[in-house]
Model the fold of this input.
Amino acid sequence: MKPTVTMRDNRTGKEYEFEIKEATRGPSVVDISSFYAQTGMFTFDNGYTSTASCQSKITFIDGAKGELRYRGHTIEDLANNHSYLETCYLLLNEKLPTKEESYAFDLELRHRSFLHNELTHLFDAFPTGAHPMATLSAASASLSTFFYNHLNPQTDSEYQEMARRIVAKMPTIAAFAYRHSIGAAFIQPDINRSFTENFLYMLRAYPHERMHIDVEGERTIRPIEVEALDTIFTLHADHEQNASTSTVRGVASTGAHPYVAISAGISALWGRAHGGANESVIKQLEMIGSVERVDEFIARAKDPNDAFRLMGFGHRVYKNFDPRAKILKGLQDKLKDELNLDSNLMQIANKIEQIALSDEYFIKRKLYPNIDFYSGVILTALQIPKSMFTPVFVIGRTVGWISQWIEFKKDTNTKIARPRQLYLGE
Ligand code: ACO
Done:
């Protein structure tokens, strides 16, 4: 007999039965898809705090334990023992690559990192000073005009080509968006550089500057920087059905082009409550300015009449700790001396962390530092401008979004995402 949940309408005494579906890990779900048909009512779940919107085999989070896995592999294993591109391969192919597969994947992405020359003209349509997230979202959507044939991939290789193309081009679009925002000439990708090194190169280099990776000095890219950024990309690669991923799936459900779905995901990510928090954290630390002023801002964060929130604290799912934040804190400590991390910002961040972890307000609400709390200090040390913090998140997350898009398209039981409402108007 299938396990079920029985609901009773206490007005009429009528009972309704709904099937329980078991998960391979984590909470089971109650299948309420027949709820309206059976009861004539809708369910109401503001912000989807108790709603599973889909079934998925990609990413698993246990918020109580602080556990995160991509395709069954723990985030600790992937961050410590695998590169970002291996993680991308895992998300897209459901297995880690062999050495040969890894090499071929890397090579293909290097070749696909270039943008069509006509696309580069698009950037000129935007004013200098435009926030790179806005340009990034628009330029990603415009990729659908160049690769319209990706609208309905049929074979596995068509799906993979579509996915690899967007993953490969995102760092270039992001770097171009930044360079346009400061009125600087674009730096084309360099086929001889890895995915992550290339991004730093396209951001930093002067035109025709060779910028070696192996030379110490101010105008170089240091291996430790590439390693740190690679880990940051891995930590951002996917995160189950968060706001931007749900947006991507929502657009997928209407049958629109995958690259406009990614563009919608970028827009959703930009908000301060989501990926935009990483830029806000560092601005907030700078605004606080000194360790002496931390108490004042903690008091504001706790005041119910003040809209001020501590950026980089709290998470809808993690109620113990964010495992990505733990890895980044370790990385921050490791890089402190080598990358000359801003000691004033770190002291302010450390004091906020200490107070928040011992203060009744934060403990009671299970508010812990999230990934964005630590990433900003490291990204600053990597000389990444603040306006590029959220684009860095986008680069890391693109593979997750496109993996979720593919899973959605291959699922024959999906429907258009069309929620209902509790109408209270005239
Ligand atoms: N500072 C102070 N108080 C907070 C904070 C915070 N950062 N976050 C939540 N709270 C309080 C709320 O005021 C609320 O208090 P109340 O019960 O007295 O009303 C309680 O904690 C619950 O907060 P909700 O907003 O209901 O929690 P929700 O799960 O909906 O929101 C969110 C999660 C959006 C992340 C929230 O904690 C927040 O705004 N944090 C700051 C922004 C941030 O860091 N976002 C990045 C998230 S990670 C990511 O997207 C990559």
Notes: Residues 80 and 231 are 8 Å apart (CA to CA).
